Structure formats: structure tokens, C-alpha cells
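Reminder to self: C-alpha cells first, then the designed residues, so the page reads top to bottom the way the pipeline ran.
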């Protein structure tokens, strides 16, 4: 769990070569050096129509000031870092990851060459590494940052996130506790929420995310993100009304926030209002090139039997993910889930799920993904072993419970399958559309 639009869910990328350069620079503890002025500072891209507001005008003015500073002085470490952070923020806001993350890394490389243990550069690098799903690198970077400034909170948040993704949940809790002690704010409350969620405390997760929302600045991207995440938590508990309210607030506070629009689309889809869902997703996709917006449209089309249109969208998504992957972003889980959900390229789905699990064998998301793929590739016994590992923390996620039920059905354990599937539907009658179809088809077969 992290506030680097990743989740999940969100495609980010960087150049592999640039990443290796960053790691070598972080390890360098030599004295600060000098650097010639950059001849070509990466550009600030225009935002999409409808998003070029007063906030972006301020961003452009600050970027121009920093640009001039860097052109005048190639040793201005703070200007490199602040410009990189502008790029990181714009990546989250606009979805232009192919441009902004390599650009941020380029500037952070220079900053760390000049000042190898500069805290602000290290935590910025760790943030980018988390977004790129380079979790072990982010873990190492967070440790370096903590070593340079043990009484500052941000690095503990990155360490928490990296530990979560690597499956070291005890270390994640410890890092989060330290972060909250140092700075109880939006970022720390959001992490508390996720830790409670994966341990099965959904009311506590909602409470902590509400605290995160209250701690945020109205209209900011971070507050819109946690408000949207609060809506997603409500959806997981089947509370469509509360979810819709949370998404509306995010979309109103931050005009047409695309992830909130996608959340509203999910609510409309779950309520059977497919046309409204498509309209919202189209608007969201115009605001940010986020593959998950297209994937939900493909899911809805598949569920409606419009296979040709669904396949066309999947081809577009494949192209987006392949572009990200070619540039250095780890996308195994996204590919594996997409292929499995739509029943295509299952051999590749299995290979990618296996590769993801090998990278982080103790992570519950990687285990859950591998279980889903094993189920749909004729390996239910292996799937059961994996789903049990994924549920070991006590997760109350109805989707995970549903998959456990589908696995038991595949193994011929009818009573246990029915119990789990009915529990999942009872906890959340608004399961994702393709999973919901599979659950009800299986329940009907068990009747």
C-alpha cells in the first residue's frame, strides 16, 4: 500500500538503465561533487483539456524558475530535487508516466552525484522506485535515507510500503508506527488504513482513511487520492451509497479527478447502469491515460457478451502495458490478472504470475494472483495452497474469499465452496463484474 499511484493498479515506468544508475549513485558515499549545467532539462508537458487550471499555472511558473536556476548553475542540488518532485507530482496527476518518471530519475541522478546522502533526494528516489514496483531497491533506498536522518518521517513511509510489497508485514507495521510517531498526517493515516485492511479490520481501515481525508488539504491531489481510496474501501464492504458519496466528494473537490470518476463508474456498473459507467470511464480516460479505466470497460463488454469489442480494448491495454514494461516498469501482475480474467493467453498468465511470485514470494497480492492463475490453468490444489497463504493475515476481502470458494468448488468440496461463495456475496454483493458472474455461475452449478 502506498500513495504512489501504482496500486495499483496504475501504470508507471522508467528506463532500466536510469534505474541502475540511480542505485549506483545511492550507494556512493563520496563527498559532494560538481556538475556541468544540463544542456537539455526535461520538459513540463501541458495537461489535458480541462485540467490546465490555476494550480498548473503556478506549477509552470515554478518550473520555469527552477529551469533557469539549473541552466545557470549545474550544482544547484535543491533545484534538481524540486524539479524532480514536480515531475513526480505531474506523473500522478496526468498519467504521463513514460515522460515524467525517467525525467525525475535523470534529475535525481545528478542530485545524488552532487550530494550522495541528501535526504530529500533519497526519499524522492525511493518514491519513484515504489511507483516502478522496484520494491527491493526502494527498501534499500529507504534504509539509506533513515540512516541519514532517523528523526524524519517520510523514509519510514517508504520503508513501510516496500516491506509490505516484499511480504514483511511485521517490519511494515514497525515502520508505520515510527512514521506515525514522528508525523501523524494524511500519509501515515493512509498506511494505517491499509495495514488494518489486510489484517481483516475493515471498520478500522475505513476509520483511518477518514482520518487521512480530514488531514488532507481540500482540492489537493493527495486528498483526492485518499478520498477515492475511502470510496474503494466502502465498495469492498458492499456499501455502494457511501462509496458513491466519497467518489463524488473527490470529483467535486478536485475538478473531474479521473480516479474518482472511475470509482463512480464502478458504482454505476455494479448498479447495472452500464451506459453511465461507460460515459464516466471515457471522461476519466480523456483526463489520464490509465490502463485500468480501459480494463473496466473491457470487463463490462466481456460480461455483456460483446467479445469483439472487449478484445479490441484488451489489445490497446496490452500495448500500453508493453510500452511501460519495455521502459522498465514491472508489469507481471497486471498482465497475469488481465489475461486470466478474460480467459486468454493463460500460458503467459501462468508464466508472469510465477515470475511475480518468485520476486516476492511472501507478498499476499502476489500469492493471490498466483492462486487465481493456478485455478484457471487447471491446478486447483496448488491454488488452494496459495490462497491459504494469501489469507493468512485474516483478510476480509470478499474477492479473496470468493476465489477461495471457487478453488474449493474446483476441488469438488461443494459444501465448503458454497459456504465461502455465499459469504463473499453476503459481504459484498457488488463484486467485480467478471468475478461476480463466475461466482453466481458456480453457485448455480452447486445447487
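Designed residues (447 positions):
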Amino acid at each position: 500500500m502506498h500513495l504512489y499511484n501504482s496500486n495499483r493498479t496504475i501504470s508507471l515506468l522508467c528506463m532500466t538503465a536510469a534505474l541502475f544508475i540511480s542505485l549506483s549513485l545511492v550507494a556512493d558515499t563520496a563527498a559532494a561533487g560538481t556538475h556541468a549545467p544540463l544542456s537539455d532539462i526535461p520538459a513540463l508537458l501541458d495537461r489535458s483539456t480541462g485540467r490546465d487550471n490555476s494550480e498548473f499555472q503556478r506549477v509552470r511558473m515554478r518550473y520555469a524558475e527552477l529551469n533557469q536556476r539549473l541552466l545557470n548553475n549545474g550544482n544547484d542540488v535543491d533545484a534538481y530535487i524540486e524539479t524532480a518532485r514536480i515531475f513526480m507530482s505531474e506523473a500522478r496527476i496526468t498519467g504521463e508516466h513514460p515522460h515524467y518518471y525517467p525525467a525525475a530519475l535523470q534529475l535525481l541522478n545528478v542530485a545524488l552525484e552532487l550530494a550522495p546522502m541528501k535526504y530529500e533526494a533519497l526519499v524522492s528516489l525511493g518514491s519513484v522506485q515504489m511507483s516502478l514496483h522496484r520494491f527491493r531497491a526502494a527498501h534499500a533506498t529507504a534504509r539509506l535515507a533513515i540512516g541519514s536522518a532517523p528523526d524524519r518521517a517520510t523514509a519510514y513511509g517508504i520503508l513501510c510500503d516496500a516491506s509490505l510489497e516484499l511480504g514483511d508485514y511485521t517490519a511494515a507495521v514497525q515502520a508505520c508506527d515510527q512514521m506515525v510517531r514522528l508525523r501523524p498526517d494524511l500519509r501515515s493515516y493512509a498506511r494505517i488504513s491499509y495495514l488494518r485492511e489486510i489484517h481483516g479490520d475493515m471498520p478500522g481501515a475505513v476509520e483511518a482513511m477518514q482520518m487521512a481525508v480530514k488531514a488532507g488539504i481540500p482540492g489537493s491531489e493527495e486528498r483526492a487520492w485518499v478520498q477515492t481510496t475511502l470510496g474503494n474501501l466502502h465498495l469492498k464492504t458492499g456499501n455502494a451509497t457511501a462509496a458513491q458519496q466519497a467518489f463524488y466528494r473527490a470529483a467535486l473537490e478536485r475538478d473531474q479527478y479521473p480516479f474518482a470518476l472511475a470509482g463512480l463508474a464502478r458504482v454505476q456498473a455494479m448498479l447495472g447502469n452500464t451506459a453511465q459507467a461507460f460515459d464516466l470511464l471515457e471522461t476519466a480516460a480523456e483526463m489520464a491515460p490509465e490502463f485500468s479505466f480501459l480494463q473496466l470497460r473491457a470487463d463490462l463488454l466481456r460480461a455483456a457478451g460483446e467479445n469483439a469489442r472487449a478484445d479490441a480494448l484488451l489489445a490497446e491495454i496490452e500495448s500500453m502495458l508493453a510500452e511501460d514494461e519495455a521502459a522498465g516498469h514491472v508489469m507481471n501482475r497486471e498482465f497475469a490478472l488481465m489475461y486470466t480474467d478474460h480467459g486468454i493467453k493463460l500460458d503467459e498468465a501462468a508464466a508472469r504470475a510465477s515470475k511475480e511470485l518468485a520476486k516476492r514470494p511472501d507478498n499476499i497480492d502476489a500469492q493471490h494472483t498466483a492462486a487465481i492463475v493456478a485455478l484457471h490453468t487447471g491446478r486447483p490444489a496448488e491454488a488452494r495452497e496459495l490462497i491459504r497463504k494469501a489469507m493468512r493475515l485474516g483478510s476480509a476481502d470478499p474477492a479473496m474469499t470468493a476465489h477461495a470458494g471457487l478453488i474449493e468448488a474446483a476441488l469438488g468440496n461443494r459444501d465448503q465452496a458454497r459456504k465461502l461463495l455465499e459469504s463473499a456475496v453476503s459481504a459484498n454483493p457488488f463484486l467485480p463484474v467478471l468475478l461476480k458472474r463466475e461466482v453466481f455461475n458456480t453457485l448455480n452449478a452447486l445447487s
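The longest helix spans residues 307-326.
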